[in-house]
Amino acid sequence: MTMPVTIIMIEDDEGHARLIERNIRRSGVNNEIVPFTNGTDAVRYLFGDDSSGVVQKGRALLILLDLNLPDMTGIEILRMVKENKFLKSAPVVILTTTDDSQEIKRCYELGCNVYITKPVNYESFANAIRQLGLFFSVIQVPPTL
Amino acid sequence: MAPEVRHRRALGQILLLSAGFLVLVAISTASVLLVNKAREDSAWVVHTIEVENQVNTLLLDVRRAESNARGYLLTRDDQFLTAHDEAVAAIRPDLDKLASLVTDNPMQKGHLAKLRAEIETRLSQFEREKALAAGGDDAAATALVRSAASGNTNANIGAVADLMRAEEAQLFAQRSANADHSQSLATLVTITGSGLVVLLACLSVVLVRRSTRARDEAEARLRENYLNLEATVDERTADLREANDEIQRFAYIVSHDLRSPLVNIMGFTSELEELRNDIFRRIAMLARTASASPPPAEGTDPELEGADQQLSEDFSEALGFIKSSIAKMDRLITAILNLTREGRREFVPTRMDTRELIEAVVTTLAHQAAEANATIRIEPLPTIVSDRLALEQIFSNLIDNAIKYLKPGVPGDIAIRARTKLGFAIFEIADNGRGIDPKDHQRIFDLFRRAGAQDRPGQGIGLAHVRALVRRLGGTMSVASELGQGSTFTITLPINWNASNRNSDR
Fold it and tell me: Contact at 8 Å (CB) between A19 and A64?
């Protein structure tokens, strides 16, 4: 029996968050989604008050991350997650408007698992999220150590 | 130095030189005149001495005749007679010579007339003495000599001659003074003139040295200005580069951040569309229930009627406009993003055969060319050093345009040729297409601007992009075209583009 996976959604644009959530639900994924609209709150949740990440021990997490956040860059959060011994095994999906090849390369180098550019065309957008949902429904996520 | 001062100085030099020249001419003239005058004066002095001499000679001859006559009377020696005759014979020519010498002086002429009369008297006395002596009448001859000696004749001759000599002595003194005066004047003029010339020369030298110094100063200032100018240019270039970078960043951030809300607008518009379907389905159901019509079969949407139908269509139309506008905005933002990204890309100079490169580009466009019934001719092209990707984009855009805007119904003929000139390769992409109105020649290079019939898809980005690339490669581009006459795009690129002259700018 696998642990129920919690989806952490870090997305500053509430409209985007709403659209993403809707489309994930439409693809039949019913896992808990914890939304954050800024980096500080998300980091506090992920790493706990002591910043060690020990609070997440034993949980299965999947992180949906936007790169453009009001208080810090998503890349910073990605780096912190991948450097943390409790969190580094959690899959990170970058979902952002940036399609700059340099940025994409950097994210993969830092250990992001999937990089998706948000299409403006809503059909493509919805399609991408639904497929991501399908991906979520089959992906095996290890519990954090 | 103010220009009028410089002008005045130059004028002063010219005036000085002219003055010097005039002084020289004046001195020369004066010297010549004065030397002539001095020579004339000397001639007059000599003349005076000659006259005096002649008077003395005459007197001497008269005395010689006198004394010889006396000697003969005393001794009867024929030698005295011969000497007497010689002296008498010399007297008249002496007189004539004196007369010719004193023609210039009326006073001396008067004296001479008197002298001549006295001498004639004495000469006739000599004749008579001779005749008496020859006749043996010695006593009568001696008496005649005595009477001449005691009478006035000899004394008169002496007196007149003295007068003449005095006159000449006076003239001599006067003329000597004149000659001295002329000579000292000539000396004075020469010395003064020379002094003046030396002074002017000194002044000239001073002026020339001063203007040389001024010129040196101006040169130094010019050099300094030049250096300053270079520094200023560098500074401005740096400013411009910074401004350009800022614009690039600005464009990137703006276009990037504009995307985010656009995703929402698009997303929720689509959600609205979904909702619209739900709402109108329910309206139709309600309308049907109200009019007690039978419910439609399972799985099919109930039909809307009348005003409801109209409402639904208006709703759809509004949503359609919103969506097409968003799509357009998205395309524009994408274009700006791509352009700014292109502007940030580092160019790498590579040596390449442009013919090979363009052949590759043409191969990728072969399908479109075949569809448009166009032939593409590639003439021999040079090998240049430039950025490969940039050149590919430039030629692909231009050839694509040429294929895209052909004249309907006319087989396309696109020629790509090049020539080299002064370190630049000049490429020409010529077509026989629909052409571009000259008034649009500038406009077509602007971002998002297009010209002519808008019957082909496009954003108005290609040429703006091409021109930006060409400029970054240190080149220029232009177009020559008339409506309906085809177009020729000319691109001038440096044959040996060096990354340092542009990339180091960034």
Answer: no
